[in-house]
């Protein structure tokens, strides 16, 4: 039989266990178990980091140094055992080079991107686990890391670059990524430019973009166009003006009037506009860029066609072939009953689709159409209640041009949406992928349902469209030779 004191203690403990319905363990029952767990549980004690000690003592203070490195007028007291982490020094010390047994090495720096600060970071990275890389220094550090064959530091530079792409860094990052073989960074920069070139136009960016880079952007089906193809031409005109007059200093709002005035003056001075600017000595270097304009979607709008004729930038031969091509396409749509694309032809979509876009500043109801003659297909786009709807308008609403009354018309399209942060980085995006939609007269169709949880305004919408099918001709038959097929 248990002693009264033990029975009393047990009853008290059980009472406490049941208090408020909680099952608690009696301290007197768990003391021995807790003591064992306490002895086996590791405790963190904050000690001075070994990495920090090594960095301070060996690198910064140079204690027990067995080799000195001279470069760019500065000296570093270092240690061979740490330098051998670098592929550059590992080869130097293990081969039959004259530097193998030297204690003082004069390091030649052939890359102008490398400075003493970059070498300090690169050498220091051999003595520590973490490296602080500032965006202003990342290219010079990358250059030093590439020369010294420090793969880990190269990777850290790449990650830092991808996180800090902006209007101020994108061009220099893209160039550096190409120079030092960071393909993922190069791809990220190109992606940033495709999204931001038209949506967030910037004078400094226009000035900095090279002709080869602009060619790559303008030719891409992924270019996020705002409004219509005519706006791509206008952006190119601004860019070309800044390449010709790099000293110009003004705002984005002033840029287009200044560019128009400059080209107007040139047109008057060059044989009263008999020679297009792109055919002149000054303009011929820009031909590869302008060749990728989709002129068929510019001349389909009367106002735009008149501006193109007025500017005198595009050669007449280019325009003549496009006018002829569009004329035959219109005849096929009207007389050959071309109802539009029958299947997804990705190559055709990428090379010849109409590129257009729109900015929605805030949530609400929107309805719009993109200007131009689209072969009798009056397409209305509606955004309402987080839905995007396409409608083929024939009789319901007024239209500025003629409309096709064919019972059914097909359209090939790709719809993309994106929102950006302050640096131009995409924070949310959606795409419909390439699709074909068949619409009867005045029929509407929901093409995207947006999740409100991931929808951020302002919202940018970009579309690729094909209203007609590629021409298929029997072998041996074709259009006149003067028409570009």
UniProtKB/TrEMBL annotation:
The keyword Nucleus applies. Keywords: Developmental protein, Differentiation, Nucleus, Spermatogenesis. SUPFAM superfamilies: POZ domain (SSF54695). Pfam families: BACK, BTB. Gene3D superfamilies: 1.25.40.420, Potassium Channel Kv1.1, Chain A. It comes from the Eukaryota. Its main location: nucleus. InterPro entries: BACK, BTB/POZ_dom, Gcl-like, SKP1/BTB/POZ_sf. One of its GO terms (cellular component) is nuclear matrix. Residues 65-135 form the BTB domain. Signal peptide: none annotated. The keyword Kinase does not apply. One of its GO terms (biological process) is spermatogenesis. It is found in: Nucleus matrix. This is BTB domain-containing protein. It comes from Pleurodeles waltl (Iberian ribbed newt).
């Amino acid at each position: 039989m248990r002693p009264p004191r033990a029975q009393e203690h047990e009853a008290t403990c059980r009472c406490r266990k049941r208090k408020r319905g909680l099952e608690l363990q009696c301290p007197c029952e768990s003391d021995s178990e807790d003591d064992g767990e306490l002895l086996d549980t590791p405790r963190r004690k904050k000690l001075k980091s070994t990495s920090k000690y090594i960095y301070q003592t060996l690198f910064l203070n140079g204690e027990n140094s067995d080799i000195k490195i001279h470069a760019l007028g500065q000296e570093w007291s270092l240690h061979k055992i740490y330098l051998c982490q670098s592929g550059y020094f590992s080869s130097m010390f293990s081969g039959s080079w004259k530097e193998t047994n030297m204690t003082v090495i004069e390091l030649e720096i052939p890359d102008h991107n490398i400075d003493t600060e970059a070498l300090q970071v690169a050498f220091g990275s051999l003595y520590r686990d973490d490296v602080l890389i500032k965006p202003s220094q990342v290219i010079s550090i990358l250059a030093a890391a590439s020369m010294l064959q420090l793969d880990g530091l190269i990777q850290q530079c790449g990650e830092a670059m991808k996180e800090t792409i902006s209007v101020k860094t994108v061009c220099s990052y893209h160039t550096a990524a190409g120079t030092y073989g960071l393909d993922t960074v190069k791809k990220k920069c190109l992606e940033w430019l495709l999204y931001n070139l038209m949506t967030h136009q910037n004078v400094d960016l226009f000035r900095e973009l090279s002709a080869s880079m602009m060619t790559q952007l303008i030719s891409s089906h992924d270019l996020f166009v705002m409004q219509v193809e005519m706006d791509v031409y206008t952006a190119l005109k601004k860019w070309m003006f800044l390449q010709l007059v790099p000293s110009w200093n003004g705002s984005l709002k002033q840029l287009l009037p200044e560019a128009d005035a400059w080209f107007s003056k040139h047109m008057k001075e060059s044989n009263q506009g008999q020679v297009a600017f792109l055919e002149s000595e000054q303009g011929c270097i820009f031909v590869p860029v302008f060749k990728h304009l989709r002129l068929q979607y510019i001349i389909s709008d009367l106002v735009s066609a008149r501006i193109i004729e007025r500017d005198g930038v595009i050669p007449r031969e280019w325009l003549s072939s496009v006018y002829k091509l569009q004329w035959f396409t219109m005849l096929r749509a009207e007389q050959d009953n071309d109802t539009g694309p029958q299947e997804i032809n990705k190559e055709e979509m990428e090379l010849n689709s109409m590129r257009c876009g729109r900015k929605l500043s805030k949530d609400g109801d929107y309805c719009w159409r993109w200007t131009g003659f689209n072969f009798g297909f009056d397409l209305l786009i509606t955004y309402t209640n987080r839905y995007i709807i396409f409608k083929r308008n024939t009789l319901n609403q007024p239209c500025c041009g003629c409309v096709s009354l064919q019972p059914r018309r097909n359209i090939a399209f790709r719809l993309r949406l994106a929102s950006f942060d302050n640096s131009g980085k995409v924070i949310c995006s959606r795409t419909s992928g390439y699709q074909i939609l068949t619409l009867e007269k005045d029929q509407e169709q929901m093409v995207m349902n947006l999740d409100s949880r991931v929808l951020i305004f302002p919202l940018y919408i970009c579309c690729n469209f094909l209203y007609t099918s590629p021409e298929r001709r029997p072998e041996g038959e074709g259009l006149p030779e003067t028409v570009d097929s």
